[in-house]
Amino acid sequence: MTDIIADSLTRIRNAAQRRLDVTILLHSNNIESIVSILVDKGYLESFKIKEVGNKKTIKVVLKYDDNGHSVINEMKKISKPGRRVHQGRDAIRTFKNGYGTLVVSTSQGVLPNDEAYKRGIGGEVICSIW
Predict the structure, then answer these.
(1) Residue 16's closest CA among 87, 56, 64, 49?
(2) CA–CA separation, 83 vs 116, rounded Å?
(3) Which residues are within 8 A (CB) of 18 and not within 5 positions of it... i.e. 6 or more apart?
(4) How many angstroms separate the CA atoms of 3 and 110, rounded?
(5) Which residues have a Cβ under 8 Å from the Cβ of 61 and sit 6 or more positions away?
(6) Which residues have CB under 8 Å from 6's CB, separation 6+?
(7) 13 CB contacts (<8 Å, ≥6 apart)?
(8) What residue segments make up the domains of the chain, in order of their start?
(9) Which of 4, 24, 47, 86 is deepest in the core (most CB within 10 A)?
(10) Is the Cα torsion angle 98, 100, 102, 103 positive or negative in sign?
């Protein structure tokens, strides 16, 4: 597998379309950071790291509204292995007029766009979600 982040986003998207309660992702520190941001922003219910033998996985609990629709409208991978997208501090200020979130990999770790803007740093835009 070339891009574990794209695979994880696709698994979450597919599980939300099928209205599943949980989905399992492969573990990496970047995936763990991205999932924790999505939980903090209210796009996912919770996550838990499971260790099976010598492999780690992340069990993600999806979140739905009162009508049974997923709270995730769209998830997109922005920066890809063949084309990295870097943006400065001012370019990541808001996304979808504050209704969406950009996940940015910075020199201070993986952060949401509003936190990166407060710290005054830019970086590689990993994905967008709203």
Answers:
(1) 64
(2) 21
(3) none
(4) 17
(5) 21, 22, 44, 45, 46, 47
(6) 77, 80
(7) 72, 75
(8) 4-129
(9) 47
(10) positive
Predicted model pTM: 0.90
Residue with tokens 């379309």: 17
Query: CB of 102 within 8 A of CB of 113?
Result: yes
Residue 106, token pair as written in the block: 């910075």
Residues in CB range of 120: below 8 A, 6 or more apart:
89
Total residue length of the chain: 130
The residue assigned the tokens 């509003």 is: 114
Write the DSSP symbol of residue 83: B
What torsion, rounded to 10 degrees, do the Cα atoms 77, 113, 37, 2 define?
30
| pLDDT tops 70 at residue 32 | yes
- 123, 116 Cβ separation under 8 angstroms: yes
Taking only the tens place, the pLDDT of each residue in 63-116 is: 999 998 999 999 999 999 889 999 998 888 877 777 889 999 999 999 999 999
**Residue 96: per-residue pLDDT:** 76
Q: Is the Cα dihedral 66, 69, 14, 43 positive or negative? A: negative
